[in-house]
Design goal:
The complex is a heterodimer of chains A (304) and B (940). Chain A has 304 residues and is of the alpha/beta class. Chain A is built from eight helices and twelve strands. A six-stranded mixed β-sheet of chain A has the order 7-6-4-8-9-12, sandwiched between helices. In chain A, helix 1 crosses helix 3 and helix 3 packs antiparallel against helix 4. Chain A starts with a strand and ends in a 9-residue tail after the last helix. Chain B has 24 helices and 40 strands. About 4% of the residues of chain B have low confidence. Classes of the chains: A alpha/beta (304), B alpha/beta (940). At the A-B interface, strand 1, strand 10, strand 11, helix 7 and strand 12 of A face strand 2, helix 2 and helix 22 of B. Strand 10 of chain A pairs parallel with strand 2 of chain B, so a sheet runs across the interface.
Chain lengths: 304, 940
């Protein structure tokens, strides 16, 4: 029995026959996404600088030309200066989501709970639900324009169902600067290609969160004996007479690739989260939650 | 002579070999197709070798060879040298030895007998069966082959010697009455004393042919004597084969069959006798009821101990009754203490003196110890004398009563001079006397005289010619201290001083114990009162099983009549065994101490055809073929491994699969060519030991934080990650430099090296074993601390009905096996909250649960800091410390906190540091906390 199977991807050209089933599946996903999302502690992300918001940020001496209505008289009454009460800027952010739904994602091994594609889709929907609920604007580059809606998950599901994600390559050049993007992919394309793809993000100072979705079979290489490997992306084949003899070298390469990716992320100040499909999705969400907060600036050692 | 196959149809499978050749040759295994997204990575490794698509021809040949060998082995080739042994048309008399010597080879003997009966069945001849160790009064019947078969199946070896005389008398009778009789004698090969007589009975009979199967006694070994001497057990053995040195394991058993000790009996090269000495404590020695040669399957390999080498009954009679009320003040207290391990002590009741003596003598003691007594009635005196003449040993002590008595006392070995000699008395001594070296005739001559014993008072003996001969122990000035005299079979021993330390320091010395035990050892055991019964009938209690060991007596065993005058030898109805009641067991053994084994010889007058039991057995060769196939298969595996790995041999010898295989093969060949008795020396074990010691040294030489492995991988990962980041925090903040975090299995690992063990409670895991709990208990007693974490504070207030959470329940289960001090939530002024940081509480991933700690007794209000003595051996929290500490190593926390407060994580680390600091410094910090205040005041 083969270790892994190719799962059926979302095919754009068979919309008519599969849209209904597909939409139904999306519906299920949205329901589950809501369930998980509701169990995660969320909140608006303070910008740690003054601006428009509800929370008190600081008292600041009144400067000439500012509106007199901003003066906090209670504070000013305590001494001879005039103060303005600043509020923390809690502007809604635009968060881009990019679930990679290419052919290589349609893979599920025996040990995994579901396919990588399913994981990416779920993650995107859950995040959409979380963010739209907390008032952020969500978008999918090239598929969905930044939207502020309460039913973010449905919108994304709808948009993804109608886009041909299988052939679409990520185009990050249109993303607005200083936005956030969460990319869920297996990042298995060659590193140079990947770097080229991510370059616009660096240029535009976009805060990226990379979630690598990996199947346990890819990490552990549990193959032995005479095996013909086929790449789901381009159909290339490679026959190994004794697959187990490749295991150690392969695992080294695989780890090295992940380390390179993590290093790139650290270099740009991005977060990198690993999501194995044999581990529960909530774990990834916890990690992602911690990572996003860490990037927001509160990290042990820094505030001390 | 023939060679054939038992299952020749399997050979048809050989036809499939060419097909197999074709199959192996033409069809390489089809690769399995696998989808593999990271193929691009794999392609980078594509320089790797490929095995040849076709195996080389010689490998094919090897594999075909294996297949052929397996097919031949399945067909079971057999080599059968001989077919027919008995003559056609003659009635067959089968004489079978089923005595003790045939027990080991009985299966072979019976197999041969069965083969002979089968032949008789084929020839349609009647069969007579005569067994040599059966009841003597049964005459052999003419039996059909089937009936003979049944009769044979009912025979079994007996634990008695064979009686050839009777058996061959019957064969001779049969030979006279049955014309043309042929006989087959399946002997056990062991000669008996009546062999010549037995075979001479066959003179004049026309028995032909007479087949004689000679038994093999070369491996026979048996026990022929055992003695319980004063300080050891000696066992003597005998064997047939003198040729080589051989060692046997002798095991001593008690009456319930429990092994008590073992010893090697080594027969030297060229010797067929040997003895072994077993040094066991006296109490255990007395319990030894039987010896067995380990692994020797015959009745003679079991030796039974007789009662006379067992514990003696010792009667003690003190001068005053009321002895039992105040045992410590009893004058004979030292005597009973000294003799208690050596015999059953019988004390007198509350009756009068004569009555007591009667009572004690009725119990038939071996030794009668009498304190300072005088005025024994004539009647009692007579009884005592009678008892001594029958073999009793009377031990008397001197004392004031005896010194003051005026009448002549007959029960002393020497005539006593009235009045005691005292230091500073009328017959004055300069100083208390010491004991002189023992005379050569004394039973104590092997012992060294104690230097520390001094005698201040004694009763002197009237000088007489034989006083010196009767003296066992004398004082330095030549006056007797112990005298003895033989009376009939028994003796009287008199000790010229008291049994308590009032006259001398003798009872306080170790020599006193040795002396009394020596006296008791040489005392005779009056087994029976020959006056009352000439012979005694003893019921069988246990008999020796034919394969050795003891068993319940079979139904044909009759009571044994013991007559002290006669030598009893085992018979069919009284096989070797233990006879008698629970109290006194008489051992009937198979061999006597002069037993020797020699091979059975049949005189030339009887025309025998000598055969061996092994003749005519067919030899099945499958085993050899299987072995060959297995070896070839191993070679094939090696070749396959070698082929694929040879290219990388130089690069990765260490981690390739072939290395262990080569090592295993080397070991295999080593063990083949190495003498099999060479046991694994200290080598392998000590390497492991050294490795373990090095590991322990490493763990002991640095402080390590440790956690208990719950078996839940998730929890263990969190514990490890949490303690690792706590280690990091501690290293940053303090001079403590903890080593790597260690996971512990409380059942197997040594816990003593870790000051603090973190134990996350997993309600789903199994309850730790009792051994684990014991280890933890010992660890906590020795000053270690366990930090239990139920990790369920988040659910703390969710239960309205006050039910405990599963983790708490599990914690209670664990703690129920431990010795737990009273606990209290750590108060804010406890030293644990002050040991490094000042802690208001101890949050973890959750906040709210108190940190429970051993209660400090009676908080002293004057002291600002509370600290118990030492360190609390237990800490309990529900806040999930490790969850707060755990860090993934890439700048991310594994878990968000509840509530999500950055400061809470810092508090969690501070709490962890405080706990570790508290563990390491104890209540020392309770003093240090005043230092700034003291310094401030000093400065002022």
């Amino acid at each position: 029995m083969a270790v892994g199977t190719q799962t059926s991807p979302v095919k754009a050209h068979s919309v008519l026959t599969q849209a209904r089933a597909h939409a139904g599946r999306m519906e299920d996903l949205v329901t589950e996404a809501r369930r998980i999302a509701s169990s995660i502690v969320t909140g608006r992300y303070g910008q740690r600088k003054h601006g428009q918001g509800d929370n008190f940020w600081q008292f600041r001496p009144y400067g000439a030309g500012e509106a007199a209505t901003k003066i906090d008289w209670r504070r000013s009454a305590r001494d001879n200066h005039t103060y303005i009460r600043d509020r923390e800027w809690a502007a809604a952010q635009t968060i881009f989501l990019w679930p990679d739904l290419s052919a290589s994602m349609c893979y599920q091994s025996r040990a995994a709970q579901h396919s990588k594609e399913m994981r990416a889709l779920m993650l995107a929907l859950i995040l959409a639900e979380i963010f739209s609920r907390s008032g952020e604007r969500i978008a999918i580059p090239g598929v969905l324009e930044p939207t502020h809606a309460r039913n973010g998950a449905e919108r994304i599901a709808h948009a993804l169902a109608h886009a041909d994600m299988n052939t679409k390559t990520a185009d990050f050049s249109q993303i607005s600067p200083y936005a956030n993007i969460i990319i869920a992919s297996d990042f298995l394309s060659p590193m140079e290609e990947l770097e080229k793809k991510l370059a616009p993000l660096v240029k535009r100072h976009i805060q990226a969160h990379l979630v690598e979705i990996a199947d346990p079979a890819e990490a552990q290489f549990p193959f032995a004996g005479n095996i013909r490997f086929r790449d789901p992306e381009d159909g290339r084949e490679f026959t190994a007479e004794r697959a187990q003899s490749y295991r150690n070298d392969y695992q080294r390469l695989y780890e090295a690739r992940r380390n390179t990716l993590a290093t790139i992320c650290r270099h740009h100040g991005w977060s990198f989260t690993l999501s194995m499909t044999d581990r529960p999705l909530s774990e990834t969400l916890h990690h992602l939650n911690t990572a996003i907060r860490a990037n927001a600036g509160s990290r042990w050692g820094h505030t001390r | 002579m023939s060679f054939g196959f038992i299952a020749p149809l399997y050979l048809l499978a050989l036809l499939a070999l060419p097909f197999l050749w074709w199959l192996l040759r033409l069809t390489p295994p089809k690769p399995q197709t696998e989808i593999f997204p990271p193929l691009k990575l794999l392609l980078k490794l594509a320089h790797k070798d490929k095995t040849p698509a076709q195996s080389p021809w010689w490998l094919m040949l090897l594999r075909l060879g294996i297949a052929a060998l397996v097919i031949f082995a399945l067909a079971q080739p057999a080599w059968k040298p001989q077919t027919s042994t008995i003559a056609n048309g003659h009635p067959l008399a089968l004489v079978i030895d089923n005595g003790w010597a045939s027990a080991a080879d009985w299966d072979m003997h019976r197999h041969k007998a069965r083969a002979l009966i089968d032949e008789a069945r084929n020839n349609n001849t009647p069969v007579y069966i005569i067994a040599t160790a059966e009841e003597t009064d049964t005459a052999p019947d003419q039996l059909t082959a089937d009936a003979a078969q049944e009769r044979l199946d009912s025979l079994s070896p007996r634990s008695i010697p064979v009686d050839r005389k009777t058996a061959f008398a019957r064969l001779a009778t049969l030979g006279h009455t049955t014309p043309g009789l042929q006989a087959a004698y399946l002997s056990d090969g062991l000669a008996t004393k009546t062999d010549a007589e037995a075979f001479s009975q066959l003179d004049g009979t026309q028995i032909s042919p007479f087949l004689w199967y000679e038994g093999d006694i070369s491996s026979l070994a048996a026990l022929c004597e055992a003695n319980n001497t004063a300080d050891k057990l000696t066992v003597a053995g005998v064997r047939t084969n003198k040729a080589a040195e051989k060692a046997y394991q002798i095991i001593a058993y008690d009456r319930e069959g429990r092994p008590l000790g073992e010893i090697r009996m080594i027969f030297a090269d060229g010797e067929n006798r040997s003895t072994a000495e077993m040094n066991l404590p006296l109490e255990i020695r007395n319990d030894v009821k039987s010896f067995r040669i380990e692994g020797m399957k015959n009745a003679a390999a079991t030796w039974l101990m007789n009662t006379d080498s067992q514990r003696r009954r010792i009667a003690i009679l003190a001068p005053a009754s009321g002895e039992l009320a105040q045992p410590l003040l009893s004058p004979l207290y030292y005597v009973s203490k000294a003799l208690a391990p050596y015999g059953n002590i019988i004390h007198a009741g509350k009756g009068g003196l004569t009555q007591n003596i009667d009572m004690l003598l009725a119990a038939k003691p071996a030794v009668f110890v009498m304190g300072d007594l005088s005025g024994i009635s004539v009647d009692a005196n007579r009884k005592l004398e009678q008892w001594i003449n029958d073999g009793g040993t009377l031990v008397r002590f001197a004392g004031p009563n005896l010194a003051a008595s005026t009448e002549e006392d007959k029960l002393t070995p020497v005539r006593l001079r009235r009045g005691e000699r005292t230091l500073g008395g009328a017959m004055s001594w300069a100083s208390p006397q010491k004991i002189a070296p023992f005379p050569a005739t004394s039973p104590f001559s092997g012992l060294t005289p104690p230097a520390d014993v001094t005698v201040a008072r004694q009763i002197l003996a009237e000088p007489s010619a034989n006083l010196y001969e009767k003296s066992w122990v004398t004082l330095a000035d030549g006056t007797p201290l112990v005298t003895a005299e033989t009376h009939g079979k028994g003796r009287i021993v008199f000790i010229h001083t008291t049994a308590d330390p009032s006259w001398s320091s003798l009872p306080l010395s170790g020599f006193f114990v040795e002396m009394l035990q020596r006296i008791a050892t040489i005392a005779n055991q009056p087994i029976t009162d020959s006056r009352q019964e000439g012979e005694q009938t003893l019921a069988p209690w246990r008999t020796v099983a034919p394969a050795g060991g003891l068993e319940q007596p079979p139904s044909h065993v009759r009571p044994l009549v013991v007559d002290s005058d006669k030598v009893i030898s085992p018979t069919f109805s009284t096989p070797p065994g233990l006879y008698g009641g629970q109290e006194m067991l008489y051992a009937l053994n198979l061999l006597d101490k002069n037993a020797a084994f020699s091979g059975l010889l049949i005189p030339a007058s009887v025309p025998v055809r000598k055969l061996s039991y092994r003749d005519g057995d067919r030899l099945i060769l499958s085993g050899l073929l299987w072995a060959a196939a297995a070896i070839l298969f191993a070679v094939d595996s090696l070749i396959v491994l070698g082929l694929s790995n040879f290219l990388h041999w130089s690069r990765k010898v260490a981690n390739s699969a072939i290395a262990p295989v080569v090592v295993m093969a080397a070991l295999f060949f080593f063990s083949l060519f190495h003498p099999p008795h060479a046991e694994a020396g200290p080598g392998s074990g000590s390497y492991r030991q050294i490795a373990a010691t090095a590991d322990l040294t490493a763990r002991a030489s640095q402080t390590h934080l440790a956690y208990i492995i719950t078996g839940n991988r998730e929890i263990d990962k969190i514990s490890k990650a949490g303690l690792e980041s706590l280690t990091q925090f501690i290293t940053q903040r303090t001079t403590i430099n903890p080593g790597e975090v260690i996971g512990l299995d409380p059942e197997k690992d040594v816990l003593a090296f870790y000051p603090l063990i973190y134990w996350p409670i997993d309600p789903d895991s199994t309850v730790p074993s009792s051994r684990a709990i014991e280890q933890i208990d010992a660890y906590m007693r020795q000053g270690g601390t366990v930090l239990f974490d139920t990790r369920d504070q988040i659910t703390a207030n969710l239960n309205l009905d006050n039910a405990v959470s599963p983790a708490t329940q599990r914690l209670r289960d664990i703690l129920s096996g431990l010795d737990i001090p009273p606990l209290e939530p750590a108060p804010a002024e406890h030293v644990i909250a002050r040991s490094f940081f000042i802690m208001p509480d101890f949050p973890g991933r959750y906040r709210g649960s108190a940190l429970w700690i051993a209660s400090t007794s009676d908080a002293d209000d004057n002291r600002p800091i509370r600290a118990g003595d030492g360190v609390s051996s237990i800490l309990i929290t529900a806040n999930d410390f490790a969850g707060a500490w755990a860090h993934d190593g890439n700048g991310k926390w594994l878990f968000p906190l509840v509530p999500d407060d950055t400061m809470q994580r810092i508090w969690a680390f501070r709490g962890g540091l405080n706990i570790v600091m508290y563990m390491l410094s104890g209540n020392y910090k309770a003093d240090q906390v005043h230092a700034p205040e003291l310094l401030r005041r000093l400065g002022r």
